[in-house]
Amino acid sequence: MSVVQIPNLGAAIALNGTEQLEGVQAGTSVKLTVAQLGAYITAQYPPPGVSSVATSAPITGGTITTTGTIGLAGAGVTNYYLANSSVTFNGVTVALGSSGVITGLASTSIAVGTTTVLGATSGYVLYNNAGVLGELAFGVVTSKTASYAVLAADSYKDFDNNGAVGSVTFTLPASTVGLAYGFAVMEAQNLVVDAPGGVTIYLGEISTTAGGTITSNAVGSYLFVKCRSATEWIVQSSMGSWTPA
Predict the structure, then answer these.
(1) How do residues 138-186 score in pLDDT, each as one tens digit?
(2) Nearest partner of 225 among 187, 189, 195, 245, judged by Cα
(3) Bridge-partner residues for 126, per DSSP?
(4) How many Å apart are CA 237 and CA 222, to the nearest integer?
(5) pLDDT at 115 over 60
(6) Per-residue model confidence (pLDDT) at position 162
(7) In the chain, how long is the greatest CA-to-CA distance?
């Protein structure tokens, strides 16, 4: 058998894997096929799982085929991307509607700051310092003609008994520091503010009993109460006649 140098061999046609090569394995000459060599290379050096990354707004940076940086466009996360989500502030969760707007609020944006305002006309505000969901400076007046269990999400609402023909009791929610509510007597009927169990409402130097009430039926009377601790609410302003019990 004649010896032919590699440069003098005929050119190979398209490989099919059966071609044989010489190799040395553990000091012994062996034959191996192109298919075996390909399988080894694939096992030791697998191809990358992703060959390219494309992006679309609000994500920027694509298409990336080697290296690159993916970013988020400024103000890129709009209400559309918040749809069907929710936000929670200090245990108070409010749902986001199909357009990413907090349900029930006339708002299309959230401004980040010490005070996060939701919409110029909604009258609602989220207080970052205490994480309390509420309304801005009695932005919403709410009349009740029957007793009502006040919600944490009602914080900073201004309640009254306008239209009531009997006593109306407003039961305060579980104490969360920062919750606050206003109450105004609009009808000559008892308007009762009922404290949660174990909670005292202070009206200056006098107070309710633990879990007690504070009442007025004098039209024009008003008070504004705010939670200061787990067991204490303070009347921060009042006018007219109120009786703690």
Answers:
(1) 457 899 999 999 998 888 889 999 999 999 999 999 999 989 999 999 9
(2) 195
(3) 116, 133
(4) 8
(5) no
(6) 96
(7) 123
The pair of structure tokens assigned to 34 is 């192109």
Query: Are the C-beta atoms of residues 229 and 207 closer than 8 Å to each other?
Result: no
Report the DSSP pairing between strands 92-95 and 86-89.
antiparallel
Query: Residue 158 has which token pair?
Result: 């201004």
Tokens of 49: 């799982």
At 105, the pLDDT band (50, 70, 90 cuts) reads: very low
Which DSSP string corresponds to the chain? -----GGGSPPP-S--S--EEEEEETTEEEEEEHHHHHHHHHHHSPPPS-S-B---TTEES--BSSS---EE-TT---HHHHTT-EEEETTEEEEB-TTSPBTTS--S-B--SSEEEE-TTT-EEEETTTTEEEESSS-SEEE-SS-EE--GGGTT-EEE-TT-SS-EEEE--S--TT-EEEEE--SSS-EEEEPPTT-EEEETTEEPPTT-EEEE-STT-EEEEEEEETTEEEEEEEES--EE-
Rounded to an integer, what distance in angstroms lies between the CA atom of residue 47 and that of residue 69?
21
Selection from 77, 78, 83 nearest residue 96 by Cα: 83
User: What whole-number distance in Å separates Cα of residue 3 and Cα of residue 173?
Assistant: 98
Specify the CATH number of the domain 138-245. Answer: 2.60.120.640
Provide the pLDDT confidence category of residue 191 given band limits of 50, 70 and 90.
very high
Q: What is the mean pLDDT of the chain?
A: 78
Q: For the whole model, what pTM was predicted?
A: 0.49
As beta bridge partners, residue 86 has 95
Q: Which residue spans of the chain are classified as CATH 2.60.120.640?
A: 138-245
